[in-house]
Structures are given as C-alpha cells and as structure tokens.
Write a structure and sequence with these properties.
The protein starts with a helix and ends in a 5-residue tail after the last helix. It contains 4 helices and no strands. Helix 2 runs antiparallel to helix 4. It has a domain of 29 residues. It is elongated, with a radius of gyration of 17 Å. The mean pLDDT is 76. The chain is an all-alpha fold and 80 residues long.
C-alpha cells in the first residue's frame, strides 16, 4: 500500500518540502527543548528575550516557506 503522501494531488516532492519546512525552525521556540534551554542558560539569555527575537524571524520563515511552496505549485515542481 502506498503511503498517504503519494495519494494526494500535490505529489511527493511537494509534501517532502512541506515536511522539511516544518522541521527546520519549529523546535526553536519550544520552552521545553532541552538543547535550547541549556544553550540559552550558558549564554545568559532569558527565554522571553529569545522568544521576542525568534517570533518575528519565524514569521518571516513562514512567509518565505509559503512563497516557495506557491512557486513550486505554480511551476509544477516534482514528478506529477
């Protein structure tokens, strides 16, 4: 049986790009990420200051991700 991502219209490469965009920055805001908390503690940066820096950056990444996906769909990127 094919995985569900093969059955949807956008195709495998499009869904792989969505998955990659989701993984690249989503863990940088979770306050329970132990690596982030240790790095912030060693640097002496409070999490609230980090969040004020990261939220606009994540919104910028989100907009860039949407734009790249729109271009991918518009040019027919992938084997579909």
């Amino acid at each position: 049986m094919d995985p569900p991502r093969r059955l949807v219209p956008p195709g495998r490469l499009f869904l792989r790009k969505i998955s990659w965009l989701k993984r690249t920055g989503s863990t940088m805001l979770w306050p329970t990420n132990p690596t982030l908390i240790v790095a912030l503690a060693l640097a002496g940066v409070p999490w609230t200051r980090w969040a004020r820096f990261m939220v606009p950056l994540q919104l910028l990444f989100l907009a860039a991700g949407f734009a790249s996906l729109a271009v991918a769909v518009a040019i027919g990127w992938g084997p579909f």
